[in-house]
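Appendix C reproduces, verbatim, an entry submitted by the partner laboratory led by Prof. M.T., so that reviewers can inspect both the input and the predicted structure.
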Amino acid sequence: MTGTIVNTFAVIAGGTLGLIAHRKLPENINKIYFQAIGLVTIALGINMVWNIENVLLVVLSIVLGAVTGEIFRLENKVESIGQFLKVKLKTKNERFTEGLVTSFLLFCIGSMTIVGAIQEGAGGSSDLLLTKSVMDFFSAMLLATGLGLGVVVSSVPLFIFQGSITLIAMLGSQFLSDEIILGLTNTGGILLIGLGINILEIKKMSILNMLPSLFFIIIFIILFG
């Protein structure tokens, strides 16, 4: 769990520095930064789906995951939690929930998260997660300048999500084949492309409602891969 712990503190530290610098950055700098982040997020997503395999299973996972998330109203529930935390933390930041959700998705739905957490959990090196920690430190710092305290708070779901993958890998690494890892990477890449579209404000997409697709792709590959 060393990599996940370091990653969590990197987001807290980077986000805190971003909060300190928040008032010093002009609006036009914040705007162009988020345009750059949106483009990079889409590029990362495309890279993750470039070598896509089991296309039918990935598509089916995305569709069923989106329908499942919509039925259970995952995004609405997360937004309600965000509003609850906003009140408890007594912050007036209007983009608190957006910062929480965007940061969590950006930090957690990526190949480095999936592969790094599995690698560490299976008894391998923590190097990939430590490298990701450095990247997330600077990303959190810049995100927090525009989105505020929610970026720092995203360290909590990051720890839970990434730590859970590590624990699952520790307990059952023999079930996490290369095919499953690739399926998770491909599916996560599609979600990242959607997140990039959200960041660029091209169209509002309910990416949180699509998160169950990561569960479905594992099941489908085990059954039909």
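The chain has one domain: 2-224. Additional entries are available on request from the coordinating office.
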